[in-house]
Every structure is written in C-alpha cells, then in structure tokens.
Amino acid sequence: MTDIVSTKKDTKNDYDAVVVGAGIAGLYAVYKLREMGLRVRGIEAAPAVGGTWYWNCYPGARVDSQSYIYQYWFSDELIQEWNWAERFPPQAEVERYLNFVADKFELRKDYAFETRVTSADWDDDAQCWRVGNDQGETLNTRYFISCTGMLSEPKAPDFPGKDSFQGIIAHTARYPREGIDLKGKRVGVIGCGATGIQLIQTIASEVEHLTVFQRTASYGVAMRNDQFDDAERDHWRAKAGELQDKVYNSFVGFDYDFEHGSWYDQTPEQRLQVLEEKWQEGSLSMWVGTYPELFTDQAVNDEISDFVRKKIRARIDDPAIADLITPQTHGFGTYRVPLENGYYDVYNRDNVELVDVRSAPIECITATGIKTTEGEYPLDVIIMATGFNAGTGSLARMNIHGREGLSLTEEWNKDIRTTLGLQVHGFPNLFTVAGPLAPSAAFCNMTTCLQQQVDWVTDCIAYLQEQHLKSIEPTLEKQDEWVAHHDEVANSTLLVATQSWYTGANIEGKPSRLISYIGGVNEYHHKCEEVQESGYAGFTKV
C-alpha cells in the first residue's frame, strides 16, 4: 500500500479514509475499506450505530421497503443468519439488524461515537484532508467519505414563542430515546408527510386529544404488512441472488418495476385491473410498478390520482374532512408517497381534530399551545414532523472547504451541483454517498443505492491505490455534463412543477433543483460503470 499522507505515518490521527456516519452506508463503507487493508476511522454523532434508524425512534417509525430487499447483499452468511419478523419492519427491528451487522463484522472498534465533524479542509500540498471534530482532534486522511444520509438534517421551524411553551416539544428526527408519555395528553402534531402519517396513526388511540396541523395532504397507500414465519424467510433467502439482480436493474431499486408496458397500450378495463391489483398489494409498487407515464404525462397522472383519491375518500366519514385530507394541490407520485396503516381512519375518531394551516397559518407557539390565525389550540405536547433539509443539509453543516478554500456550503447555496451525486468539482477525494443529484437522494430503495454507491467509491479508491495516484475529482466540464443530463431528465417529468422537499422548496432560500436523479437506478448504475470502464475519463487524477 502506498503512503497515504505526507505527515508522519505513525501518528495516531493519520488515516487512509475517514467515514462520517454509522448507518447503512457508513457501516458498509467502513467494512469495505477495511477489507482493502486501509486504515479507517468512522465518525458518528450518535452514541451507537444505526444512523437514521437510531435517530428516528418516534412512535410508529417503520420501513416502507420490504425487509427481504432492505438488507445487505455482501454476505451470504449474514442473509442466512438474520431473521426478519415482518414484511415492513419497525424502527426497532432495523436498528437491531444494524447492530447485529456491526457486531458480526466487528465494526464498532473503528468508530468514534458521540463525535461530530466541525471542519474539513483540503491540503493541496499534502494531498489530504484535515478533518476537525468537536473532541478537539484533527484527523489527516487521504479520502473523506460522507455517509450521513440524505434525510438526516432535521428542519425545525423556529416558530415565535417556542421557548415559552410550558409543555414538551420534540422533533420526530430527534425523538427522545426514552419516549414521551402521551397517555391522557393533549398532543399537537405539525406535519402530515410520511413521518407525520406514521406518528399520527400510532398515537391517536393513546392520547386524550390529538390536533393535527396539516399544510399539505399526502397520498398514502394502504400498507399490507405480513408477519414472517420460517417458511416465508426461507422462501426469500432462496431468492436472494435473484432479488439482488432485480434491485440493481429496476427503476427505483425494488424487486418490481413497470411491468405492464405503456398506459396507452391497454384498455381502460386493463388499466383499472392493474391499479386495483397494485393497490391490494399494499406496497410502493402502487407508485413505481404501474405505468411510467405516471411521472411524465399529466393526463395519465390525473387518472391515477383520481383513483387514489377515491380510495382515500372512502375511508373518511365526514365529507368536509375528506376534502381537506385528500390531496388536490399535486398529483399522485410527484410528492413523497408514504405507506399508511390506519391513517385515514384516524379522522373518524372523536378525539382527533384537523387544522388546515394552509388557510389558517400558525402564528406562534404560546405558553399553553399553538396559535393560528383562527385561534389557539391548548396542548401539553407538540411534536414536529416537519421534515429535513434533504440531500445537502448534513454535508453543508460540516464546514467543508476544498481547493483554494472553496466552501461547499457557499457553492451549494448558489447552486446544487455534483457529478453523479458522488463527487464535486473543486473537492478532491471527497465522496458524497447519498449526495444530491443521485437516485439515493429520494428515488431509490436506500439499501440498493447506498450499497451501489459505496461499491463505486471503494472501487475508485482501489483504482487510485493501484495506479499510485493521490487524488481524484471531476472536471468542471464533466460536472456540467452530469448536471445538464440530470436536469434534462428531471424537466421531462411532472415532479419539477410540484413544490416539495424533492425540489428544495421546504427550505427557504435553497436553490431549486430536483434533488434526486430520476433517470432510473438501472440507468444510473450503467453510467457509473461507464465512468469506471473509461478509466475515470472526465476526472482529474494527480
């Protein structure tokens, strides 16, 4: 192995690679880099492994990808040993799985927990990164790999009066690990996206009164969650090789795809049959397993949206509530599609109240509740399910500076640009797993794309090592080429016209661009392979 940094090699703070994050991507990256013989240091803000599945421990948190594809593929032994209990596992089960992986492959010893990166500066003379953390250390590393997740930086609106509230305020992404006693409490939930839906449907029967503050209604798909026995687990284990091939060659990294051809090649009766079958399947195949025109053709989207709206309205007794809870401002699939398990039925309960904050915005938080333009709602607990600064938030807060002091935060405040979502011009040897402008930012089963991206990163590092090269970064021309392709694909869809976190619209001042590549996981995979096979053409190598 070649020398990694020009500083003394025997000092304790010299590493070949520093990996930020101990979630799905981070654990895999540490494993892969260590198997290559590199000296690796993992950094994790939490006191334990889990990443997203450590922090998001709010009531009802659950995966909306099937367990038999929401897993690692690198170890057949791991696949055989781990027993999934459900089709769609709850947070606690996924956290146990990641702890099992960390134990099995002895990954904890390579991590510094309860540690945050506070700075990362590229030293062009030494061809390495100087990474500072909140423990007062400066680590020297050739390769700096961010595996912080695309939904890891919470967005918590700074409502006036928040500090005056006499009860409990929590954000779902930083929910207390010990939980909150909600029994007999008046609880307010702000937000009705995927997280809000899981939370609301779970706590409605427990609290004395639940007030839901909704700005944007969601198209939830009714989940069908099965319990697994040994026979079911053995069935999916036997298909592991087939499943792995499918997820890497489908549109969004699942074991299903658009299998019914074009919308226009079928009769109305055939289309309705497909929609009904997908609805009964109770998975995200209702979103990415019907017809591709859902994303590009307004007329097709309108018909499928009407189908889902009818399913939602049939669950709600009060027509006035049904009008509010049924999405009208955007089409099905152009905004995050969550799975739900009893969410719409919640609004038939006497102890649940819906507040439309689009027509009556929240003015402030008072000592005793939330005040909107139409009045005050007394509360004991406020839970914010207000989302994240997606794709860029966690990277932006690490204070990263590349060549000639170039600030990643300042660059992305002007315009969000990457190459393949994996590297950024001006930042040698910075790898951004789950970064913006890649499918993993929103349009991919996470375990599929995170593993594929880590494989690309580690293969790239292996190439540099074999060629005795010190650094790699995309040229400006290569980056412009990727951004132009990303935008061309994005602008051919209906998603760019919908105001959502997909386009950064939930963060004031954030540049508008579809945060995730929507050309397909399979197509993205091919483009990544083309770069490798070309010897990283379009990248500057030193």
Distance N to C terminus = 17 Å
CATH topology of the domain at 14-56 and 87-115 and 127-137 and 147-153 and 389-399 and 415-541: FAD/NAD(P)-binding domain
Query: Strand share of the residues?
Result: 15-25%
Which structural class do the helices and strands define?
alpha/beta
| Rg, alpha carbons | 23 Å
What is the number of beta strands? 20
Q: Helical residue percent?
A: 25-40%
Average of the residue pLDDT scores: 93
Oligomer: single chain
Describe the fold and architecture:
With 542 residues, the protein is an alpha/beta fold. It has a domain at 14-56 and 87-115 and 127-137 and 147-153 and 389-399 and 415-541: FAD/NAD(P)-binding domain (3-Layer(bba) Sandwich), CATH 3.50.50.60. Helix content is 31%, strand content 16%. The chain has 16 helices and 20 strands. The protein has helices at residues 24-35, 52-55, 76-81, 91-104, 194-203, 230-238, 240-248, 268-281, 285-288, 298-313, 319-325, 393-396, 408-414, 446-466, 476-491, 521-533, and strands spanning 14-20, 40-43, 111-112, 117-123, 128-133, 138-146, 168-171, 186-190, 209-214, 221-222, 339-340, 352-356, 362-365, 369-372, 375-378, 381-384, 400-401, 430-432, 472-474, 539-541. Strands 1, 2, 3, 4, 5, 6, 17 and 18 form an 8-stranded mixed sheet that branches. Helix 1 (24-35) packs parallel to helix 14 and helix 14 (446-466) packs parallel to helix 16. The longest helix has 21 residues, at 446-466. The protein is globular and about 70 Å long. The relative contact order is 0.14. Residues 1-10 have low confidence and may be disordered.
